[in-house]
Amino acid sequence: MVPDRSSWCKDKLRNEEEEEEEESVNPTEVKMSQIVMPCHSNHRQELSVGELLKWMDCSACLSAERHAGCPCVTASIDDIHFEHTISVGQVVNIKAKVNRAFNTSMEVGIEVSCEDLFSDRHWRICHAYATFVTQRTNTGKKVILKPIVPHTEKEQVEYSVAAERRRVRMVHDDIIKDLLSHGSNLQVDNAVAAEKTKVESVELVLPPHANHQVNTFGGQIMAWMVNVATISASRLCQAHPTLRTIDMFTFRGPSQVGDRLLLRAIVNNAFKNSIEVGVRAEAHQEEGPNRHINSAFMIFEVLDDHRKPCMLPRIRPEPLEGGRRFQEAIARKKIRLDRKYIISRKQGEVPLSVPWNPRNQVYLSYNNVSALKMLAARNNWRLSSEKDKVRLYTLEQKSMLSIRVESEVDVPAHRAFCLLAEMSNRPSWDTHYQKCELIHQVDEDDFLYRVVTPSVHQGILQDFILLACKRKPCGSGDPYVIALRSVSLPTHPPTEGYNRGEVLCAGFTILETKNNMSLISYYNQASPEVLPYISTDIAGLSSSFYHIFCSCSQYLTRNRLQSASEVQTGQYQATNTDGPTCQTEADSLSVALHSTPL
């Protein structure tokens, strides 16, 4: 399917802007261009998704190995949403580069676009993140990866947010389990039996299917899985379905030449306009047990002549395991919808806040932290004023104004992190802080607060319902992060006598500098409720930001040796700082946000 001309123009302009930004070529970047031939296509003369996955996996692997300097294997590929199909004769352009290297694993970003040679039009197809791991040496020793050094603003954003994406991957299975615990059994009448959609196919791994490490090429396994999934979906809808989304490939073990790959697929659930197919790949030798090597979940649609999704028949799950798969498919769909809703919210929408509940907490937390990291990574901040090394920066983006206030303090970063995260101590240094109520401690890193601040409207206080998230550094050179955003809670609706304010993105970053000092930076994307507090500072008519930050610096310096609990109870005597208490570090996050004079 070809997008309209407006989206062509937008994507082309975006690509040109990105090209202008990148002054130097990333040493891990790999580019691949392929013209789509009839042998690559399906019955509709469109590029087979399986073929595209091969090219994507190959490009990402080459990028990973260029950075690692040794053989690497695919560990997983995150969700992939295919925005458009690609026709025979068009060109596929793939760009892959390492976003961040951890210990023995790395995240590789993959961008896929399409090019029409006759009209010189370009448009985006998909964007994916793959995780690769290094193989051990012949002596069994692990290969430790060197760190990635980001150069451009875009690379800095991807580098910073990669740590948060990694965090989400690690808890993905727990999210599914939690959603299942709140699920209910549904009785489906007049539905197609899931047994009719079962597909089982065997592939013999031959030398052409192997990669340069003599293992079965991961892209080939994915292509075989797409094939059986498509057949399974077709048996339900009795039509040719279009693969729209892949919910994650997880490689659990290797396969070699000579293996027999047993591929099983079945429709887990059918919704109004989409079908989820579960696929499992197992490998075995001529003799020996089956080894589970890969699993994935694929979402298909059936399009009519106008390229609109058709209504689909419902599915009746198999007994026992079928019921579990049926409910898990509902959980995965909820995750996709929550994530899409959270990420799609814009500054101009009212309300800005997203309803919070335990099931979408992980993605709200991810969005909260990543938004602050992306704001901090912007490179076009403008210095508005400076007084005694306290600097106020502004950033204008279309109709949005953001501020950054920063200064260096003689306090170790981990202590500043703990102290700033103690919201209950805010009154000792911020005259604009009035009240804070802990609503719920989600876990040791995330908190929900109701914060009360003075309003610019005389006699009317402002309150905010905030999600506060704290993060310690993931690696050397990373800052401590305290991030804030507004959420809505049915238990805490707007009340009479208070003007309910909202915050899109705010918080602190705390970076360790030389001589055990810290660079403290406060950020705020100025919503209408916040702008009146800071407008006079930006215009140079006031220096309240300076006085508040000086008070903050004095608070940190005075209590640099106290534990967080002693500061909270007003005991300001020097004590041993081994193992500082950071259980409520997210507290200051909320307060920081709405000590808006900062």
TrEMBL record:
Signal peptide: none annotated. The keyword Nuclease does not apply. Pathway: Lipid metabolism; fatty acid metabolism. Its EC number is 3.1.2.2. Residues 1-26 are annotated as: Disordered. Residues 26-138, 195-306 form the HotDog ACOT-type domain. It comes from the Eukaryota. GO terms for molecular function: carboxylic ester hydrolase activity; lipid binding; long-chain fatty acyl-CoA hydrolase activity. Keywords: Cytoplasm, Fatty acid metabolism, Hydrolase, Lipid metabolism, Mitochondrion, Phosphoprotein, Repeat, Serine esterase, Transit peptide. Residues 381-539 form the START domain. Its main location: cytoplasm. InterPro entries: Cytosol_ACT, HOTDOG_ACOT, HotDog_dom_sf, START-like_dom_sf, START_lipid-bd_dom, Thioestr_dom. It is found in: Cytoplasm; Mitochondrion matrix. It catalyses: hexadecanoyl-CoA + H2O = hexadecanoate + CoA + H(+); tetradecanoyl-CoA + H2O = tetradecanoate + CoA + H(+); dodecanoyl-CoA + H2O = dodecanoate + CoA + H(+); butanoyl-CoA + H2O = butanoate + CoA + H(+). PROSITE patterns: HOTDOG_ACOT, START. GO terms for cellular component: cytosol; mitochondrial matrix. PANTHER family: ACYL COENZYME A THIOESTER HYDROLASE (PTHR11049), ACYL-COENZYME A THIOESTERASE 11 (PTHR11049:SF1). Has an acyl-CoA thioesterase activity with a preference for the long chain fatty acyl-CoA thioesters hexadecanoyl-CoA/palmitoyl-CoA and tetradecanoyl-CoA/myristoyl-CoA which are the main substrates in the mitochondrial beta-oxidation pathway. This is Acyl-coenzyme A thioesterase 11. The lineage of its organism: Eukaryota, Metazoa, Chordata, Craniata, Vertebrata.
